[in-house]
């Protein structure tokens, strides 16, 4: 469902050319839980931003569920980001003075869903990520880090995306909470058949995935299938 073919990203910095992504190819089946590992500066975040259409590849193709996003016009990319991709970040990026439920409802509002649909679906998603009804009405900034990340995951699922991209989703969490979040992502990938790709330094997280890639100087140097 995700096929990346010979993707290159080049930046010009003064008279130097930087290639943070330098010919990356891989494909993932629908519902896989995969990790990209690599040292700082190896190109992980740049690659993720290309897959999420936050930036355009200099060359190569990114095909998500049959749609080549490298050739989509800008106008269609906004809808792609909104409808087909869920983003999860290290620092959660919730709106602090909105409730957990309101945060999850927001992407559905942008997609034009009715208030009743948004409310019902947000409650279902928050239950699925393990937040009790009482938590739904709490302001995001009154929740612990682990809970905020659960809300962020529920929000990423709001428009039923084909692909979730997560940048260091356990980076701000203690080990125990991080493990709970990893187990949640793994379960969601397998049960909901949402493909989840995480960028991480966290070996414990990578060990729980179905597949892990190592990136070094913008190239994949290792591609390992983890035993089920
Ligand atoms: N917009 C940009 N303009 C110029 N150079 C950039 C740009 N974005 C990234 N780079 C460079 O590309 C290289 C890879 O950066 P990237 O953030 O993708 O690495 P990373 O593996 O995600 O690192 P980290 O783990 O520290 O987040 C770095 O040398 C960075 O300075």
TrEMBL record:
<keyword id="KW-0547">Nucleotide-binding</keyword>
<dbReference type="InterPro" id="IPR017871">
    <property type="entry name" value="ABC_transporter-like_CS"/>
</dbReference>
<dbReference type="GO" id="GO:0098796">
    <property type="term" value="C:membrane protein complex"/>
</dbReference>
<dbReference type="InterPro" id="IPR003439">
    <property type="entry name" value="ABC_transporter-like_ATP-bd"/>
</dbReference>
<dbReference type="InterPro" id="IPR017911">
    <property type="entry name" value="MacB-like_ATP-bd"/>
</dbReference>
<dbReference type="GO" id="GO:0016887">
    <property type="term" value="F:ATP hydrolysis activity"/>
</dbReference>
<comment type="similarity">
    <text>Belongs to the ABC transporter superfamily.</text>
</comment>
<dbReference type="GO" id="GO:0005524">
    <property type="term" value="F:ATP binding"/>
</dbReference>
<dbReference type="Pfam" id="PF00005">
    <property type="entry name" value="ABC_tran"/>
</dbReference>
<dbReference type="GO" id="GO:0022857">
    <property type="term" value="F:transmembrane transporter activity"/>
</dbReference>
<feature type="domain" description="ABC transporter">
    <location>
        <begin position="2"/>
        <end position="228"/>
    </location>
</feature>
<dbReference type="InterPro" id="IPR027417">
    <property type="entry name" value="P-loop_NTPase"/>
</dbReference>
<keyword id="KW-0067">ATP-binding</keyword>
<keyword id="KW-0813">Transport</keyword>
<dbReference type="InterPro" id="IPR003593">
    <property type="entry name" value="AAA+_ATPase"/>
</dbReference>
<protein>
    <submittedName>
        <fullName>ABC transporter</fullName>
    </submittedName>
</protein>
């Amino acid at each position: 469902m995700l096929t990346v073919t010979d993707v290159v990203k080049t930046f010009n910095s003064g008279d130097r050319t930087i290639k943070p992504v330098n010919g990356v190819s891989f494909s993932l089946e629908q519902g896989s839980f995969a990790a990209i590992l690599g040292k700082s500066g190896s190109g992980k975040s740049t690659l993720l931003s290309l897959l999420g259409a936050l930036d355009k590849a200099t060359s190569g193709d990114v095909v998500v569920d049959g749609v080549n996003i490298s050739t989509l016009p800008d106008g269609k990319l906004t809808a792609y980001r909104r409808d087909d991709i869920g983003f999860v970040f290290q620092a959660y990026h919730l709106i602090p003075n909105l409730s957990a439920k309101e945060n999850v409802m927001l992407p559905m509002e942008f997609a034009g869903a009715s208030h009743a649909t948004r409310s019902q679906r947000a409650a279902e998603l928050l239950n699925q990520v393990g937040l009790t009804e009482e938590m739904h009405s709490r302001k995001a900034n009154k929740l612990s880090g682990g809970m905020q990340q659960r809300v962020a995951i529920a929000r990423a699922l709001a428009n039923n995306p084909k692909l979730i991209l997560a940048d260091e989703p356990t980076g701000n969490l203690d080990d125990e909470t991080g493990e709970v979040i990893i187990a949640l992502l793994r379960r969601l990938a397998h049960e909901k058949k949402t493909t989840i790709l995480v960028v991480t330094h966290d070996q414990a997280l990578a060990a729980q995935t179905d597949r892990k890639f190592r990136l070094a100087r913008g190239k994949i140097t290792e591609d390992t299938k983890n035993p089920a």
